[in-house]
Amino acid sequence: MAIETRIAALFGQPISTLSRLHGGDLSTVYRVTLMDGTAVVAKQSSRARAEAAMLLAIRASSAPAPEVLAIEPDLMVIEYVATGGRLASAWPDLAHVLDRLHGTPGETYGWPEDYAFGDVQIVNTPHDDWPEFWAERRLLCHLPLLPAALARRIEVLSRTVSERLPASPAPSLLHGDLWGGNILAYGDAISGLIDPACYYGHREVDLAMLTLFDHPPGWFFEMLDLEPGWQERQPLYRLWPWLVHLRLFGGGYRSAVEACLAELGV
User: Fold this and answer.
1) Active-site residue identified among 177, 188, 206, 214
2) Backbone angles phi and psi of 91, in degrees to 5
3) Is 177 one of the annotated active-site residues of the chain?
4) Which Pfam families match (predicted)?
């Protein structure tokens, strides 16, 4: 059944316009205008229900995220969120948004179900020990699919994770894929966090993701009142998304993985 027909059936009215949105590397996303003039976003994904649950969790934290309007196993329709602002003007508000998001506690590290970026599985099986969670679920899981030399270095690093990370940081609700393309701004405010890969973990993980491609000012981190040693932990947290990029998009990201390993002295 055509996507237009499916959306029309969900809302009980015809579609006026439908256009593909840019930026959907791992799914197909459309902007849709209903006949009554309402604008929505439709996303086709095999993990639509899982993503909808994550958006609901973000909204429950009082952080901004699109409202889920309709959901099917492979199709999610959400509200169209106002954009047009620049992240560079919204850093102060993002700090407040992250305080609300990360202030939402979990009972342990992980999430009720696994997730994925494309073909790269994200194992979220709960664990009570944070360093073990990070070593097993975010680093060692990649070894069979990496070049041998990289795999050896990551295996060596994994033996020292318990010395590098706190054993029991507060399990905070994480966005999980917090880069600039997933942060919508309108004026000086954050209007929505989109495309989440949520789980509960150390809040510094989101900051590592945020600095992959974006460059927050120093005072932004001061606003977050981070724990001592956070800067030294960033390369270890940044290593995971670079490994994901390496597996998804190829050898162009190997140098980023190796740079993290070099920062960590491995």
Assistant:
1) 177
2) -55, -45
3) yes
4) Fructosamin_kin
